[in-house]
Design brief:
Elements (H helix, E strand, L loop, with lengths): L1 H33 L7 H12 L1 H4 L2 H15 L1 H5 L3 H20 L3 H45 L1
Helix pairs in contact: 4-6, 6-7
Length: 153
């Protein structure tokens, strides 16, 4: 009687652990599909995915630059917008190498992550282009009054 009772308890505990593990795995997979870009939380899930599926790429400088820029994008917009032109170019090259690697990884999850990387990079590029356009407009407005004064004399 004691052995059968222990067996039932063991089966219930083991079954609940398996169910919990499957729920967590499903939630991770769903979180990868729900967000459009690599926002807080999704960047960590992406890093876990890449660590499992692209071990060599994760050890490269491209990966470090990519994660640095995405982390700045999520954590500190002011620092993100003041990145140097070299860092911006390095980020664009890093995105290209990550996309190439994700094209080689099999499975639908890799395709979802590739789309998120592409979309995130597009958003970041738009912000950087907007910033450079605003800065050039500010420079033109600062110089315009001087030109008008010179014409008036």
């Amino acid at each position: 009687m004691k052995n059968s009772f222990k067996s039932v308890i063991f089966a219930l505990v083991f079954g609940s652990l398996l169910t919990t593990a499957n729920i967590v795995k499903a939630n991770d997979r769903d979180s990868a599909k729900n967000e459009v870009i690599l926002v807080r939380g999704a960047e960590a899930n992406f890093a876990n995915f890449m660590t499992k599926n692209a071990k060599k790429l994760v050890k490269t400088n491209d990966w470090n630059i990519f994660t640095e820029v995405v982390t700045l994008y999520n954590a500190s917009p002011s620092k993100f917008m003041t990145l140097s032109a070299d860092k911006k170019e390095a980020f664009i090259k890093a995105v290209e190498s990550i996309e190439v690697k994700l094209n080689k990884v099999r499975g639908s999850e890799a395709k979802v992550w590739k789309q998120k990387v592409t979309t995130t990079a597009s958003v970041i590029k738009v912000l950087w282009n907007y910033q450079s356009n605003v800065e050039s407009t500010d420079t033109q407005q600062a110089e315009a009054p001087v030109a008008i004064e010179m014409l008036g004399r």
